[in-house]
Amino acid sequence: MTRTPLRPLARILSARERGENPDSIERENIRLRQEKVRDRARARAEGRLLLLGAAFVIAFAMIGGRMGLLAASEPVEPRTADVGVPINAGRADLTDRNGRVLATNLLTHSLYANPKVMVDPARVAHELAAILPDEDEKLLLNRFTDGRSFLWIKRKLSPEQMQAVHDIGDPGLLFGPREMRIYPNGRLAAHVLGGASFGAEGVHSAEVIGTAGIEKALDAQLRDPANEGRPVALSIDLTVQAATQEVLETGMKMMNAKGAAAILMDVHTGEILSLVSLPDFDPNDRPQPLLSGDPGDSPLFNRAVQGVYELGSTFKILVAAQAMDLGLVNPESMIDANAPMVWGKFKIKEFENHNYGPLLSVTDVIAKSSNVGAAHLGLMIGQDRQQAFLKALGFFDPTPVELIEAPGAKPLLPARWSEITTITVSYGHGLSASPMHLAAAYATIANGGTLVRPTLLHSDRPEHGPRVMSEQSAHDAVLMLRQVVTRGTASLGDVPGYEVAGKTGTADKPRPGGGYFHDKVINTFASTFPASDPKYVLIVTLDEPVETSGTAPRRTAGWTSVPVAAEIIRRTAPLLGLRPAIEPPPSDAVTLARN
Fold first, then answer.
1. How confident is the model at residue 420 (pLDDT cuts 50, 70, 90)?
2. Which of 19, 146, 179, 519 is most deeply packed, by most CB within 10 A?
3. Are 233 and 99 in contact (CB under 8 A)?
4. d(CA 28, CA 253)
């Protein structure tokens, strides 16, 4: 910067020549210099004021925005930060295949207390006992006065109970937020869902964990924050499930059975459209397990998966299908069916000591449900090949269905697979498996011979397993099953328009100490429909049924399980989108014509 002198020599000399006072020049320059300094100081001050003003505007805008966000948000009570692992209280919903909610979460509150700040513990105990019927006044008062500073009173409160407790007005009663699991359909699909309860708990949150069924099997997935709470779609169709449950429950009562199970499965995808086990329960109020007696008597027992039974004559189609697949027979091959069949010290009889022999075609062995015919087919196959085939169908392992109970339901296999074992397994005795095992095996036959993996998860794409038998053998087996319905032991299972094919199975229940009951049976009807293009498999099992409409009690599957299954098909087939096929009248039928 160039500094101007206060007394420039040229101007001083010029002023003296004009007779002027040179000091006035100095004073004028001082004045000009001071004005420049003042202008610079003013500019600096104005810039600082502008900057400070902008800072205040920004600060107040941020404060105002934050206040607006706080005003628009839900009020949250301040809390002290806890030390330790945070509790993940989120859990994804479960829906059926069409998006209808099966299990979801509901915000509720828990009730806890700090007795040390209570004003009147006796009054609080008295009023809480009136609001909460399951609480004892004396016990509450003892807990309030024993010196503790924290205690849980109730994990879940209804809104009405919460308001009533709030009206007590004591500062020692406090509320904590909770997410509780609810099942809006009550008992519907109870054994599929299982139930949930609280895991790790804190004052301000609680972990919801699965306790049974698919809730426990998929617990990690449902609680995984990485899934962002996306619902998990099950294969169950809620409408089909409701219809199946209603019919099965009515049928169980009509047939005087102590329990029942039904499985409806897509033969191509393995998706389970309906799974019912009776008696059942409400997962919103899950009962306690039995501590003694037969676990099968508990409503928590899932007969469709945990029930491991001898499934009787439903196994006969398996031995026939394998014999055809090995090229040993065809549907018209004649088989020795002369009864009784003597094998060593054992005697193989037919139902009510019938004799369907001396010879039957393989188709008639299935249609008439001949034990002797099935036994001879088993002997033709042999022990090793029979075991390999049943193992390929999944009868040696627990089913892979997504239920926590499934891994514990392993089939009961013979200790030694002798020739007599081969004979008895051929007609469904000596090997115990669950209805779910049977459903997977029948679906494998119905879909053309590829193994089916049963699943409770909805999928848009069929998963093709390994081939277990040829397509032709599977097709012939389905035609045999159709004969069982049209002219065999399952005639009550014929549903006009839906071409039901299936096999009955009546098995005496084993005694706990050995041997079998003669008046207690497990009845099963394993079916597929429509026979011309199988799409679904239905398994219906009744525990200790007896049909009493006639002069004598009837306990066979043809009189008990079959009509129940037929009604389920009649009710659910239209819900599944199947149109009844109009069957043409016989060629020799007489037609009435009017002018």
1. very high
2. 179
3. yes
4. 122
**Percent of the chain with pLDDT strictly greater than 70:** 93
Top pLDDT among 530 and 291 is at 530
C-alpha to C-alpha distance for 166 and 159, rounded to whole angstroms: 10
Quote the CA–CA distance of 231 and 94 in Å, as a whole number: 6
> Residue 23, SS3?
helix
pTM: 0.79
CB 353 within 8 A of CB 330: no
Which of 109, 234, 105, 236 has the alpha carbon at shortest distance from 182?
Answer: 105
CB 327 within 8 A of CB 308: no
Specify the residue for token string 């993940």. 88
Average pLDDT of the chain, as a whole number: 87
CA atoms within 13 A on the CB side of 465: 23
> How far apart, in whole angstroms, are the C-alpha atoms of residue 415 and residue 418?
9
Catalytic one among 313, 361, 473, 561? 313
Cα distances (angstroms) measured from residue 283 to each of 159, 181, 216: 21, 9, 13
What span, in angstroms and rounded, lies between the C-alpha atoms of 197 and 350? 51
Question: Domains of the chain, with CATH numbers?
Answer: 94-233 (3.90.1310.10), 239-287+298-572 (3.40.710.10)
Q: Quick one: which of 443, 438, 448 has its CA closest to 470? A: 448
* Region class of 228: left (phi > 0), else alpha (psi between -120 and 50), else beta: left
Q: Which pairs with CB-CB distance under 8 Å and at least 24 residues apart come from 458-462? A: 458/97, 458/233, 458/234, 458/235, 458/271, 459/235, 459/269, 459/271, 461/269, 462/268, 462/269
Q: What pLDDT shows up at residue 455?
A: 94
Tokens of 565: 């299954």
Neighbours of 76 (CB within 10 A): 9
Query: What are the backbone dihedrals phi and psi of residue 468, each rounded to the nearest 5 degrees, phi first?
Result: -100, -30
Of 89, 88, 94, residue with least CA distance to 213: 94
Report the residue count for the chain.
595
Q: Which two tokens stand for residue 333?
A: 């091959």
Structure confidence by residue, pLDDT tens digits, 321-352? 999 999 999 999 999 998 899 888 888 888 88
With residue 151 as reference, give the H or E element that holds it. strand 151-157
The torsion of the CA quartet 488, 490, 492, 496, rounded to 10 degrees, works out to -80
CA distance 108 to 151: 18
Question: How many of the other CB atoms lie within 10 Å of CB of 334?
Answer: 14
Angstrom distance (rounded) from CA 264 to CA 240: 9
Q: What is the pLDDT of residues 349-396, one digit of tens each?
A: 888 888 887 999 999 999 999 999 999 999 999 999 999 999 999 999
Full DSSP string of 178-204: EEEEE-TTTTTTHHHH-EEEEEEE-SS
Those residues with Cβ within 8 angstroms of residue 293's Cβ, 6 or more apart along the chain or in another chain: none
Nearest-angstrom CA–CA distance, 296 and 310: 15
Q: Give the whole-angstrom CA distance, residue 198 versus residue 190.
A: 18
Which residue type sits at 184? P
pLDDT exceeds cutoff 60 at 87:
no
Active site residue 473: no
> For residues 356-365, b (16+ Cβ closer than 10 Å) or e, as one string?
bbeebbbbbb
Radius of gyration of the chain from Cα atoms?
41
Please give the Cα distance from 490 to 475 (Å, whole number).
Answer: 19
